Amino acid sequence: MNIFLRFPRIPLALFVAGTGLLASRCDAQTTPAGPYKIVNSAQVPGSGGIDYVYADSAGRRLYVPRGGEVLTFDLDTLKQSQSIPNTEGHGVAVDAKSHHGFASSNPVAMWDTTTLAMVRTIPVQGDPDGILFDLETERVFVFSHAAPNATVIDVKDGSVVGTIDLGGAPEQAASDGRGHLYVDIKDKGNVAVVDLKTLKVTAHYDLGGKNSPAGLGLDRKNRVLFAFCREPATAVMLNADDGKILATLPIGSKTDGGLFNPATMEAFSSQRDGTLTVIRENSPTSFEVEQTVQTMSGAKTCTLDAKTNQIILIAAEKAPAAGSPGSGTPLHILVVGK
To answer: Which of 59, 234, 245, 302 is deepest in the core (most CB within 10 A)?
Structure first.
């Protein structure tokens, strides 16, 4: 992703009021009014680019890599807590069993999630971007647009297990708990399927002419992939076993994150245009855009708090012009729920 967001400064009180008004207008014009809305928010001073946000639902901590460190917040109150310094990461993954956290930095940072003390750094090749923890294999996958496309790390001791050639630039990924990893390949317009035993790509699922997939969700039970594409702005639903396209639906502009919540049978795509598209899975072959939630311009990535079924997004304001009053680019944390 490697994109540093710049947006006009907006007072938080005006932003919250304005988003509520904008949401009601947009919902009336495009999709039926739905239950999702911004239920909590926080504004944090600071500077630096942002990319992924990660909710550790079990540990009740929110992680946001920014400005050479990983910021941490209480997931329930959004109150800022201790940061993890000297970490130029894009994303975070956490294993509750080993109590180890990882950032997709170079070298990869590994810390104790109880104390937030650094355990070690792990030299890797490429340009780390996205990251995923797979519970079944107890491994972390660090993704890079440059070769090697994925570096595989053992969460227990931080050792590098191997690397994977994905055949293109990866964005988001999801694992199915059955020995398969799915990765959307941004520059090739497909989804790569990886055998987690051999660490080899076994297939590439075509997206039917839809390009730049940047978000990915997976319904493990019903074997449905949700690939969120930028060109055109489309959600492509695929059979996870054979890649057959099941349906397509419109989403907002410039998606950069997606997920599926099995507790509600809904998929979510966060877009830089300030919208969060909610797709309901009525059955394994029937889907509908349930709601378009107005968020904030630049709120392009999202994460799920599995305990509350809330979606957390982040955005950053534009830096002030040289010589103008004020400094920094405040970070906004938005919580969307019912």
So the answer is: 302
